[in-house]
Amino acid sequence: MWRGVRISGVARRSAPVVVRHLWELPDGGFEEDDPVVALTFDDGPHPQSTPAVLDALAAAGVAATFFVTGDAASGEPDLTRALADAGHTVGVHGWTHTRFTELTAAALDDELDRCVSLLTATTGAAPRYVRPPYGHINAIATERILVRQLVPVMWSVDPKDWRRPSPDALANHVLEHLAPGRIVILHDGRSDATITVAALPTIIDGAHELGYQFVAL
Ligand SMILES: [Zn+2]
Which CATH code is given to the segment(s) 29-214? Predict the structure, then answer.
């Protein structure tokens, strides 16, 4: 399973850190000649939606990455632990889901540190990945993430499941935009994730038919 990560383009000078955030999996998305892609789920864990997503992933034998908020994870410790226990990667999505660009550096530091502490205590492993809420990030936020040895992760396929397209439209968008290394953004953090859950088998089966394997970050 793909586990390694490199950030290319990190240049440390006296001036701001320049980084290429992770929009796609490293190494071109190939592992042992098989193209790989990643499913990511944001904004959970949610007591109804997340178990449904977990069931769909378990049924297909697929590992994914969940970017949880500290707010949600602190209220659902058992569910947060269940994500890790099921073999999924648990990453940081901020504590309050405030745009990192709207937080002071001190407030962002506080959110990141609280999230890392919570997830480390809850899952038994320190998180390695951070997804900025709304994908909003700037040089300061990037630097605050990188000094913690965390990796900022964006995405490269966005079917906008929060707009509630039909399950078929959602799945078709994902399958039409897949390419080796692509990172798909979905959401499990709202009360009704039925469309996303309904689309998952079509996404997973369709991707497998196209020759892709799924990996957790
Ligand atoms: Zn979010």
Answer: 3.20.20.370
